[in-house]
Design goal:
There is one protein chain. By secondary structure, the chain is mostly helical. The chain contains 8 helices and no strands.
Length: about 200
């Protein structure tokens, strides 16, 4: 039996249908994704420098670690599971991202570990988030592409702006440094929202 050869237009439409991804099924209940989203929102709140410094002084950095890690790991596992059926799932990259986030959580729990591996973990996250986010935005369209775009922006803004802020303004934070605080808080909220949209 002969198979009909596709026309160039049909081929283009077929490729586009593979690339256009607005929803992926993680297999997670909705409440778990919503809980992860709420943790991201709490992460944005505790990312406000005065509150972050207060938590460090009160020895509550482990609370910040739980908030930051739970939201990210749930979303990333959901994205990894949902992307397994796609033509480029990037499973190995997702496992590396998840492992680095869990390692980051360990550095929050053990201050001595923070001084030894905190900086390498932060740099490693940047070296993984940027290529993974870039690969997602290059290979996919729709809402999944937005996840890739904001993954790159999230890690760059979260990593670079605090350094620039410290160099330009010094150790001052809060209202004295509001122009630097707003982008780091806003990018977390937007990044959480685009992940939620593709998983729900």
């Amino acid at each position: 039996m002969e198979t009909k050869e596709q026309t160039p237009i049909e081929k283009a439409e077929s490729i586009e249908s593979l690339c256009l991804v607005n929803h992926i099924d993680s297999g997670f209940p909705r409440w778990l994704i919503e809980a992860a989203f709420v943790c991201y929102l709490l992460q944005a709140v505790v990312n406000y420098a005065p509150l972050m410094h207060w938590m460090d002084d009160a020895h509550l950095s482990w609370v910040r670690g739980i908030v930051q890690t739970f939201g990210a790991v749930v979303m990333y596992v959901g994205l990894m599971r949902g992307m397994k059926s796609l033509y480029r799932p990037f499973t190995v990259w997702w496992w590396i991202v998840i492992a680095l986030n869990l390692l980051g959580f360990m550095t929050e729990l053990v201050p001595a570990l923070m001084y030894r591996v905190g900086l390498p973990v932060a740099v490693s996250l940047m070296l993984v988030y940027v290529p993974l986010g870039s690969a997602i935005l290059y290979n996919y369209r729709g809402r999944l592409r937005q996840v890739g775009v904001w993954m790159v922006l999230y890690i760059l803004i979260s990593s670079i702006i605090p350094v620039v802020s410290f160099l330009l303004v010094g150790p001052e934070s809060g209202l004295a440094n509001l122009s630097m605080e707003i982008p780091t808080i806003a990018v977390i909220v937007i990044y959480a929202w685009v992940q939620r949209r593709v998983l729900i």
